[in-house]
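Lab notebook, page 48
Experiment: co-folding of the full assembly
Goal: obtain a model of how the components sit together before planning crosslinking
Operator: M.T.
Materials (sequences as entered):
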Amino acid sequence: MSSPVTHIVDDDPAVRDALQWLLKSRGVQSQTWASAEEFLSADSRELCGCLLLDVRMPGMSGIELFDRLRGIGCHLPVIFLTGHGDVPMAVQALKDGAFDFIEKPYDDNALVDKVLAAIGHDAKRCAHANAIRALRQKLEQLTQREQEVMQMILAGKLNKVIADDLGIAMRTVEVHRSHIFEKMQVRSAVELSQLLSTLGG
Amino acid sequence: MSSPVTHIVDDDPAVRDALQWLLKSRGVQSQTWASAEEFLSADSRELCGCLLLDVRMPGMSGIELFDRLRGIGCHLPVIFLTGHGDVPMAVQALKDGAFDFIEKPYDDNALVDKVLAAIGHDAKRCAHANAIRALRQKLEQLTQREQEVMQMILAGKLNKVIADDLGIAMRTVEVHRSHIFEKMQVRSAVELSQLLSTLGG
DNA sequence: GGCACGTTTGCGGAAATCCACAATAGGCAG
DNA sequence: CTGCCTATTGTGGATTTCCGCAAACGTGCC
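Observation: model returned without errors.
Model output:
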């Protein structure tokens, strides 16, 4: 897993530098982007850390970038920065899943605290995302037939019933079952069920 | 399950009446409370619907009431109303789990929409809470010993292992197992695992 | 054609689960 | 004291699961 990086998106070079300097002085790695469009061109789905986003920018606004990112499956925690934010905008942003919304001028310590909180939050998210990814990888190792059988196992059906439903011999179901457990690296149907339940959590 | 009610907490009788009238005209049941203290004395944990809360009130503020309610296990969705809200306050409220934050003067249609959204949201929460309650009720039917055995079943242990760990005969474990399935109304360890996984979801 | 892989099936046995019938023992309420 | 609940154990059998050994068939690749 990559180390957390705070991505700063602001059209003003002075602001970018000030933020980067502030974060660096507290030991927080950061990377700057001069526009929403620039950041969008990066592969943001793989990133870990957080996103410091100026609301008002020429071209694409921070809000719009936020929406776009969510649309393409990037769930990096976003902290908005704005010079003249109004309550409805802040409320909407947070309801849409923004992590925080800060008005300029900001307090250095408060901002760093929020960034650290966002990074901490994202660490959990990334860990969970990695667990999900590993699980999907295992699931993809299963053949079509094995996935069918697995569903029926999770439905609590006995091998005999599964065999009847699929119109195959019980022995075949047993073989599939064995392969499923092996590939999923579990030793019982209960473990399998618990492993899969982490997906829908 | 009780039908949803919007609880209005505001010290100004005119505001309370206006809100109640507005909601009634849209078919939304409501109940008014003249102060935070008054609402706190109600058994708010059993309520379904939402909470319209004035931020600034004599005595306990809306924000403080909100915190208190969360503290005592009331998770009714809260919509704050404020005459002169600032961004930091709105942000903090939403981060603490408030459902919405509206500035006065409010738009009637927008407010009703938000109330309806909150009520819809709470319907799901109540349904889930009821499921949890039913599950807890079943769990409480289990004796101490049965709960121990259940944990070990969920850990994927075989009856033989459970018997060894508890220092009792395998037959006894089988009896417990049977009782557990009966009381929890499931027919296999897999179903049990899935039933319990709804708790941690 | 040969080879790998997936799906299928059978045989037979070890191990585990499920269950009815039966019984002992302690705690607790009426 | 009696009845109910809980925990415990045993016997014996039906059912199910788990697994090694063996093999047949089709698809797709080299």
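Interpretation: Chain B has two domains: 5-131, 142-197.
Next step: discuss with group before ordering constructs.
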